[in-house]
Amino acid sequence: xxxxxxxxxxxxxxxxxxxxxxxxxxxxxxxxxxxxxxxxxxxxxxxxxxxxxxxxxxxxxxxxxxxxxxxxxxxxxxxxxxxxxxxxxxxxxxxxxxxxxxxxxxxxxxxxxxxxxxxxxxxxxxxxxxxxxxxxxxxxxxxxxxxxxxxxxxxxxxxxxxxxxxxxxxxxxxxxxxxxxxxxxxxxxxxxxxxxxxxxxxxxxxxxxxxxxxxxxxxxxxxxxxxxxxxxxxxxxxxxxxxxxxxxxxxxxxxxxxxxxxxxxxxxxxxxxxxxxxxxxxxxxxxxxxxxxxxxxxxxxxxxxxxxxxxxxxxxxxxxxxxxxxxxxxxxxxxxxxxxxxxxxxxxxxxxxxxxxxxxxxxxxxxxxxxxxxxxxxxxxxxx
Length: 384
Description:
It is a single chain. Helix content is 27%, strand content 20%. By secondary structure, it is an alpha/beta fold. α10 (220-233) packs parallel to α11.
């Protein structure tokens, strides 16, 4: 299992390349705009020092051996930006002002991590409608997975009406759900984790009847295979952003970790991340796919118990930035107006490098009330 690596800007292609990438942490701390062409390739993980030095000794030039493994015909400007906007666990806090704020921000991708409403409400229908409107108006892509909240009623009471409610939600979000099949836009793919996840507590397969009934998954191994199949179905050569409700395992065994357990069912500090999602991330890297970003929710920032009140919401592991977007409630009243919470992620134009990650609180008219930077590749990575 991979540990936490606070290096930044490094894209690791596969397991065999990790040791080489770790040797270049110093290079990755240099601001992107100040890198030479060779250093820029090393920082992006598409060239390695041993190859560059060997070639310079013989010819002094960079040959095709140091070019990106994933060949592309497009010209990449690492100083331009690709914008991803993430709405954390909604829990009923989504309305017309939320939609107005998104329209003001104009992201390229809009991602929802699940847990939309409470019991039998219609938030999923509202989210699905807006996803369709967003794609038509902004010419971008909206993706939405489903959280444990969408199946909570069925888990508590397995009645025909509750089962129908779950199926209706699945059907409504199907066009936008990357857990059904990978979605692609602007040369970047989004692959979904396992919907309805409660996290990886216990044996990692909590409320198994939900997965059997609605996803046709009978075991954790089948869930791993399903994620791998979606990765293989994603267009080749495109960076992969993972979108899930619960984040992956491997981000820390302490209460305040991005996926640390602060519930009562399992030992305090238990790593409650999803093991099938961790397997999918590792598999994508092993076949040479770029994985710049993993986005999830479920583990709320305001913890239920622990030595501190607030959870750590960001981690960097092997060059991949993991972002927990679960700030709940995501609408607050400030200075006589409502402000919406989003996570604003800026990437390089090709999507291969995460440049900044920020919390923002914004009103319906586009006024930003507060913003906090969590990650900046030019300032050393994670901002404490």
